Amino acid sequence: MPSIHRREIVSWSMYDFANSAFSTLIVTWIFNRYFVEFVVGDPIQGTILWTRAVNISAIIVALLMPFLGAIADHSGRKKRFLFLFTALAVACTVLLFFSQPGDVLFAAAVFVVANVAGEGAQVFYNGFLPELSTRKTMGRISGFAWGLGYFGGLLSLLLGLAIFRGVIPVPETDYLNIRASALLVAAWFGFFSIPLFLWVRERAERRSATAVEYAAIGFHRVRETLRELGTFREAAKLLLARMIYNDGLVTVIAMAAIYVGAVYGMPFDQVILMGIVLNVAAGLGAWALGFVDDRIGGKRTILITLVVLTFATVLGTLVDSLAAFWVAAVLIGLMMGPNQSASRSLLSRFVPGDKQAEFFGFFAFSGKISSVAGPFAYGTLLSLTGSHRIAMASIAVFFVAGFFVLLTVSEEEGIRAADAYEALAEAS
């Protein structure tokens, strides 16, 4: 296997820096609220439609990615899949710029495709982590990448704020100063992903086949992996736990801008400022707890984050003071980075090298299936009660349930199972 160079680790991590602009500006802080308040023009109906768009993209990713991950593992072409999905995400993000008031179907459909491509790309990207680290360094490398990603989200938000406030002169006519965020994201995503494609090497053996043969191989490998879940019992329990607690995290992130607008009447520029603060907190949390992950293990790290996330979510729905809400928001920011980073590194420790993209396909499956229930619950409760507070409070249940499922996971046993599988494969 080729040696690992620091340039490769940094180049791989830069992809987190690149794609963070999409999740930050499109999914979380700017375009989602623009869709609700201006494209749809109704805060309740717009929120319900947005959650449904998130649901649809989540279902597509959940069904598609284990299959494509298996093909990428077999073919040794994770980079090619990553490039195609990245290019599709960038192209569709450009199209979002053309969404104007009343273009509900167009905006929702383009967002769904862009989100599927962006989330799908993560599967192949995550599959490189074990090739660029050891089990002793996975936590800090994953944490470094997540931290760099949140730093990228911070910088892109600062640029978005500069455009919105006219520091970077963009006309306000037809909401150009808001819609320009889509062009910023597309350029950011495309440009900063280049180092990975230039300098990260594909280490897996390449295998050639026809499209039909690849499809058959993909279905076969997914079927075999499902049969072998008993061998990877701890990985399966981790995926189940993540399916639950990630539901809460995804929903809190996706609904944050809409929530503060509806409950506190926070204007766009202050929403962007909150996004900046949360990205700083999340980046610092991911970086700092990456070292904690390597020292105490991923399971304990995730459990710590779930306790704090539960407390902060409940706090944020009970307080009337905006200052108190800021405290809750910063706590969520500090924990969401390490929660995601430690989940990624822990799964990598549980999975043998020749099944990384495939299992990260199931990782995406668990994350996206969970992403259906949370936004659906939020949208449904909102439609029944008309209260964003009640809808957001319900999300704490996912953190608590995920915590108790994760308690059943044995980190030591998961690592032993992966080592035993690799040893058996080498012997045969």
Describe what this molecule looks like in 3D.
The protein has 428 residues and is mainly α. It has one domain: Growth Hormone, Chain: A. The chain contains 17 helices and no strands. The chain has helices spanning 6-29, 31-40, 43-75, 78-96, 104-126, 138-164, 176-192, 194-199, 211-227, 233-264, 268-296, 298-318, 322-350, 356-385, 388-393, 396-406, 411-427. Helix 3 (43-75) packs parallel to helix 5 and helix 6 packs antiparallel against helix 11 (268-296).
Report how far the terminal alpha carbons are from each other: 19 Å
Helix content: over 70%
- Mean pLDDT, as a whole number? 86
Overall SS class: mainly alpha
The total count of strands amounts to: 0
What portion of residues belong to β-strands? under 5%
The CATH topology turns out to be Growth Hormone, Chain: A
Q: How would you sum up the global shape? A: globular
Determine the number of helices (DSSP H or I, runs of at least 4 residues): 17
CATH 2nd-level architecture: Up-down Bundle
The largest β sheet comes out as:
none
- The H-level CATH homologous superfamily, spelled out, is MFS general substrate transporter like domains
For this structure, the quaternary state is: single chain
Topology pattern, helix = H, strand = E: HHHHHHHHHHHHHHHHH
State the main characteristics.
428 residues; mainly alpha; 17 helices; 0% strand; single chain; globular; Growth Hormone, Chain: A; 82% helix
SSE order and pairing:
Layout: H1 6-29, H2 31-40, H3 43-75, H4 78-96, H5 104-126, H6 138-164, H7 176-192, H8 194-199, H9 211-227, H10 233-264, H11 268-296, H12 298-318, H13 322-350, H14 356-385, H15 388-393, H16 396-406, H17 411-427
